[in-house]
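tl;dr need the bound structure. longer version: we got a ligand (adenosine-5'-triphosphate) that a collaborator sent over and nobodys looked at where it sits. i said id run it. heres the input, straight from their email, havent touched it
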Amino acid sequence: MRYGAVEAVHGISFGVEPGQVTALIGANGAGKSSTLAAISGLVPAGGRIRFAGHEIVGRPPHEIVRAGIVQVPEGREILARMSVEENLLMGLRGRDRSHLASAYERFPILGERRALLAGSLSGGEQQMLAIARALLAEPRLLLLDEPSLGLAPLVVARVFDALADLRRQGVTMLLVEQNALRALRLAHHAYVMDLGRIVMRGTGEALLKDEGVARTYLGVT
Ligand SMILES: Nc1ncnc2c1ncn2[C@@H]1O[C@H](COP(=O)(O)OP(=O)(O)OP(=O)(O)O)[C@@H](O)[C@H]1O
Ligand SMILES: [Mg+2]
């Protein structure tokens, strides 16, 4: 995957198992977001990306969404001047609005605030809204780019609680996170990226115990 002359991701290979949480961690510029963008079809990529037995490289983003891969974008991209409910309605992609009940069940706070402008929600609530909206499309694979970005520590904890709930419900997730500690605690499997390559892989548990990972990514000295 390249941006002009810059090769952002090179020769990586990894898998995501259904019903599991897979995490990509790594420093700034490692190529994590680029990897998600390639899977979503937002940037061209070489090589192969197979999803549920089908090759998806080169297919346009809307077809990839229709195949069941839905990304919660970095920065959330909620529509601030629309209500919480209007934001959720967009996630339905034509499905009946009775499905909104499932979002309010998962995230009761969104039910309480359904009539408020989305822009009036706290950062954490906006992140919940973005996740809830993505889930309304009933994805077979949910991609998350830095869900904890810019949130206060207490709020980060709440977002990760919500992700842990989704994990228990068997939602398949590919999670990109700078908060390596939380990502590794949540993930069944994880991959460490550096300069466009995968430099380490293992279960979340194993990587948490790895001294090199601890020193480089968990801030343990
Ligand atoms: N639109 C772009 N145009 C040119 N280069 C880009 C573009 N987006 C990313 N890059 C470059 O590609 C490389 C990978 O960037 P990417 O955003 O995928 O990393 P990341 O791991 O998501 O980093 P971060 O933790 O900062 O989000 C970096 O060298 C970055 O500068
Ligand atoms: Mg990124």
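gonna send this back to them w/ a short note. The mean pLDDT is 93.
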